[in-house]
What we know:
365 residues, signal, 8% strand, alpha/beta, single chain, two-stranded antiparallel sheet, GDSL esterase/lipase At5g03610-like, disordered N terminus, Rossmann fold
Amino acid sequence: MYNYHPLKLFILILSCCFLTLFLFSGERGVEANADHHHHHHAHRHLYSRRPTKLFVFGDSYSDTGNNRKSEASSWKFPYGITFPGKPTGRFSDGRVLTDYLAKFVGVKSPLPYQWRKVVGGQHLKNGMNFAYGGTGVFNTLVSDPNMTTQIDLFQQLIKQSVFNARDLQSSVALVTVSGNDYSAYIARNGSDQGFPAFITSVVNQLYLNLKRIQNLGVKKIAVTALQPLGCLPRMTANSSFQQCNANQNGLVNLHNVLLQQAVGKLNNETKDSSILILDLYSSFMTVFKNKGDRLGSIRFENPLKPCCVGVSSGYSCGSADENGAKKYTICDDPQTTFFWDEVHPTQEGWRAVYSALQATMHQLL
């Protein structure tokens, strides 16, 4: 997919890091990162009340049912077979990252935005999920609400007094960016040379999005680092799910370095807010290395091999031919696999990631 020589890639990434440090830093770039740690420590105890609401923005890693039933595989069997036993619009056999974060924070998984009128107001008490599978910070191959639009919808609800200032102050936001902007860039034949500049523009836009969520009144935000895209089954299939694509993971590392700089800057600019990076890169890698979580209760024999796959190219998990015959195969037990389909973890995969992340998540409480 990319033909970077590893050394060239390294030099490229290094030069880009200097470039963007410059872009982000203003006058206080280096010291900003230095006092970042102290800042968190000082402000960790600002809120004695536990969060009461979760607001979610992003893509299929956090979508719990906003996608259109007519279009998304997440509404087709066998999605949802583990939980709740039928498809509910989650891109997994069961729970996704949102569900685990909600559990950690101590609220029920928030209602998907598209169902807000179908069910009564009492369901709004847990917050709301605006995430939409396939979207990015910019427009992707899905024409639907990119992150700016998702935040617009949130802002409209605040203006309509669906959520008030107190709701927002005692809430947490989850923001997931899982690489759809980059898939769209490749699909539109973006050049390899242009990739670093495009990654910079994605993170710059994400910075603006996070700042806007803060300005709307949400004081605590968890944002995901990019997972190792080079280890997704769609990238490892040609090595029989044995080997990650190092070039692609090099680009992921550039995104994650820039994200750290952006979050460091935001945390220094705001005294009463904190943004936490959920490091999906290292938690995925930890799980792959240990073939499960560190507690050893979960075993994935080959973590890179998905449970549900299309029978041939052109077909994917959940697809059927014109006669309705299924065109995918499914493993005997999704609990023994980390990946559900070619890009999404199983419920058990997310549980392992969650247990690897948990130690860092306490500042959200």
